Sequence to fold (484 residues):
Amino acid sequence: MESPGNRRIVIEPLTRVEGHGKVTILLDHDHRVLSARLHIVEFRGFERFVQGRPIQEIPVLVQRLCGICPVSHHLCAAKAVDGILGIDKLTPTGEKMRRLMHYGQIFQSHALHFFYLAAPDLLFGFESPVATRNIIGIAAAHPELARQGVAMRRFGQEIVQATAGKRIHGTGAIPGGINKNLSPAERDALRAEMATMLAWSRQAVALARDLTLGHFDELAALGTFASHHASLVRPDGAMELYDGKLRAIDSHGAKILDQVNPLDYLDILAEEVRPWSYMKFPYLKKLGPGDGWFRVGPLARVNTCDFIPTPEADAARREFLSASGSGSGPCNMTMGYHWARMIELLHAAEEIARLLDDPDLQGNELVAPAGSRRAEFVAMLEAPRGTLTHHYRVDDDGRVTMANLIVSTTCNNEAMNRTVARIAEQKLAGRAVITEGLLNQIEVGIRAYDPCLSCATHALGSMPLEVTLEGPDGSELDRRTRSS
Ligand code: MG
Ligand code: NI
Fold:
């Protein structure tokens, strides 16, 4: 691939994605894009670090993996521990408290991404100065919107705090259930904000829709391509973010697989290792490594499910598919992630409202009794960024002998690479010149996936953005640097 006739453009790091990445664009002699490579150093230390630890400790330990999405890891590990302990059904209080925690995390994560990371690009345009494309810029130009973004994020964090005990690195989910219920005072405090949160969620869906449809051609140019989509769904095909079984569809909406039990994930999923990348490339075995890659996360979930089990988000889903997809088929536009993410924000708000009205949250049966122990278990859930898998094996003393995690961001690896390649093809258009516009669009394209690089990577610290263009003989043709 990297013959002497090919040129390489290197971009590092990406600003405003969580963590760090580095991009290399491979060009041939005629400056045509051969491929793009997103270099992310996948964090594998955790899988070794937990060897020998008692399985019950894992839900707390696993949160060290990531400071950005610890709740997702906490809950996924807790589900795996339940399985190892033979606990197949939680008490209503245990199950609903965990769901509330999960929807709270999704709400805060989606609000953070949209208002702090995505809205600045969508509102000001990708070519606007980097210095104003941030939440500070939003606060100056759209103070009400910035205020809502901050308050929505805080509301999600308050839910996490009330269910997990702390905003980050909580201990709420314990083997077989939860260690606290929701007190009437906690419930009332959250309920007091609920009508506002629902109203603002509706407005966020409308804003994401208007920004997407208002700049449709421009956004569609940023990495629209046919892909498979995967997510968990309920037995009736409904969107299911906390539990469910795996479904994958093709770019037209035909089912490739459906209702796959997480325990059988190794029968259908494999991970390709490529010599240039530390991050693996998951694919569906049925289609093979070349063809079996897929997208996960908000866009994939809105595409794969038959419906969303809350009425307002489902109405928004139908509007999304008819406006952005091919009729009622899946949307294959990378920039469709933003609108889909806000539909999920509204879904999370509706679920939170429903749960806050449920008296089971004040129940006192927090933990279900253990059943007969298993040597191995696999849990999956839909984290804000996509399908998350935790697989553990234990010895007779209940100590971990094997851990395998597939994080959401890793599942989107191939799709992110293709997004960069597609943008570079269009933006370079045969010229070997790095423009500010190319940098901006690559960032915007990758950011749509909301990659959690700190989950998938070793963080390297802050560095300026640097782009280098190398000629066929390895000489530097162009270089651009941007301070972060
Ligand atoms: Mg892994
Ligand atoms: Ni993470």
In short: Residues 66, 68-69, 452, 454-455 surround nickel (II) ion (ligand 2) (CB under 6 Å). Residues 59 and 78 are 5 Å apart (CA to CA). DSSP finds 17 helices and 16 strands in the chain. The chain has two domains: 7-41+428-449+452-482, 46-418.
